[in-house]
């Protein structure tokens, strides 16, 4: 009987040499005349351990990592096929503390199943939510989502059920469901992992959205920087169609739902929902003024449900286990779990799905193990390039939407980028303005021009003799961008800039008193 | 020889335009197809794209130039994308970028003098937990330090 070995096919595993490891395993097994079955699973999201090789034993899966192709002969030598000891052995995968301490709802299958296996998906709870939704009235589906308290995981945290209800209530010849998979935030990869690792979950969530909203067409807008996600989603859609989960009669419901992948083209602002709609329509990704809301006039002018990947991917478990089950997780109005993404200068970078309410300190040290460089952590940017830098004094604040908003920060899409003591916060603040200048769609003045003026002003704070006036100017400019921009691109660029200025004035060559004068 | 090539390129573009006619919001998928086939979107194709999709040339040109992904000139044999976003910066991404410029002898969006390489900044490859990240052609590389980038570039040079 052959022994089953798992080697992930996630981009992060490939980038760490997973294919080379697979080749080496096949070669070594052949040389030793051993029968093995190598399965390409999704990634557990413990990226410092990739490539993470698992062997199926009677006790469960035993993990080894990070495995380089050079390590493969010694693994065979140590009899890893029987789960034997080796310097890279991590014991039973499920018992690895990083994994064992998580609350994996959305990411429950991650690393367990093969991404494109319909059998694996069905065997691990797949399609239950869709089957339940087909058996329910659309209103009841929407009500379940409302009751779950699920809020948009893309960053804006708008209640998903309200969007669905709005679209459902419209009368139109054509309605759409659009999945925003333009995951451009540095420090985030949960959308990528979902599309590469558990694509049927996203398809299931979108099909439920289609049934509930009365939409027969869906689009997934995926960034061009994610070629593996694009090809996995395309294959998964074809498989789901042939199995009757998509197409002209979804699971015999009599309702149609057709799904298409649209490849983005490297524009960060197209992650803003109206710019994304323009892009899908084949235009420049220029932000639209709201109103009209996309729920009423969205894609091609029709009512459109727009949700992020993780929002839609959270729907199947809510429909499978009920709103109360999901709502049990989290705190206050931040219900459920969020896949936090630990990245940057962190020893144990990866995906941590936990209920809202844990603290940054727990993530950084209990999970992350401190900085990768071994130097003290100086600043942590939470919520992507438009999120605030959070200093150590705020690391014990619970991570939920309201508490973070109250301190002028955002949870956003759950990206957490760690910088050690070598980070120059003035440089990072300047970079935030520079990034805004590069990516601005150019429609509104505060973002288009403010970003460039912001870079210049930060430069002058470093060199000019009238620092105090330059700081005043920068704050004034940030105020204009914050209140006068059409979307979050210009409207939130001040978050990293001002948090850097407020918490790390010394990096700007300022005494603390100057920077906090306002 | 050159005219034959130009002719076949035009034929290809016409064929691709035809493939996408009637598709909702077809311009981006069409531009992707052209770039996937040719490596770039020739300025000479703008007129036939506009005509085929019933758009103005200004609209087509506007879309090509708006998106960072689309290029109007031929890339080098190997496109090297170095991530310049925060998570990579926190682990030496900027030093890596400077080294890439030095190794290839060109700046952002340029080709190396021998035409072998194109250097492109990228803002996130989604490998932020294993930064700094680099993509060469279709191949992703995580935790790239200066020695590793030098080795990768040299191996492509020797392979040529």
Give the tags:
heterodimer; A: 518 residues; alpha/beta; Glutaredoxin; Rossmann fold; Ubiquitin-like (UB roll); 4 domains; five-stranded mixed beta sheet; globular; disordered C terminus; B: 160 residues; alpha+beta; 2 domains; 7 helices; elongated
General description of the model:
The complex is a heterodimer of chains A (518) and B (160). Chain A is α/β, with parallel strands linked by helices and 518 residues long. Chain A has helices at residues 11-15, 18-32, 72-77, 97-100, 118-123, 128-135, 138-148, 160-169, 190-197, 199-213, 227-242, 273-280, 309-321, 323-327, 360-367, 401-406, 425-439, 445-448, 450-463, 467-484, 488-492, 494-503, 512-515, and strands at 3-6, 36-39, 53-57, 60-64, 89-92, 176-181, 217-222, 258-263, 304-308, 330-331, 334-335, 337-344, 350-355, 377-382, 389-390, 415-420. Chain A folds into four domains: 3-100, 3-Layer(aba) Sandwich (Glutaredoxin), CATH 3.40.30; 118-327, NADH-ubiquinone oxidoreductase 51kDa subunit (Rossmann fold, 3-Layer(aba) Sandwich); 331-420, Ubiquitin-like (UB roll) (Roll); 425-515, NADH-ubiquinone oxidoreductase 51kDa subunit, iron-sulphur binding domain (de novo design (two linked rop proteins), Up-down Bundle), CATH 1.20.1440. Chain A has a five-stranded mixed beta sheet with strand order 2-1-3-4-5, covered by helices on one side. The longest helix of chain A is centred in the C-terminal third of the chain and has 18 residues, at 467-484. The termini of chain A are far apart. Chain B has two domains: 2-66; 78-159, Glutaredoxin (3-Layer(aba) Sandwich). Chain B contains seven helices and five strands. In chain B, helix 3 (46-53) packs across helix 4 (57-66). The longest helix of chain B is centred in the N-terminal third of the chain and has 19 residues, at 2-20. The radius of gyration of chain B is 18 Å and the shape is elongated. The two termini of chain B are 25 Å apart. In chain B, 41% of the residues are buried. At the A-B interface, helix 1, strand 12, strand 16 and helix 17 of A face helix 2, helix 4 and helix 5 of B.
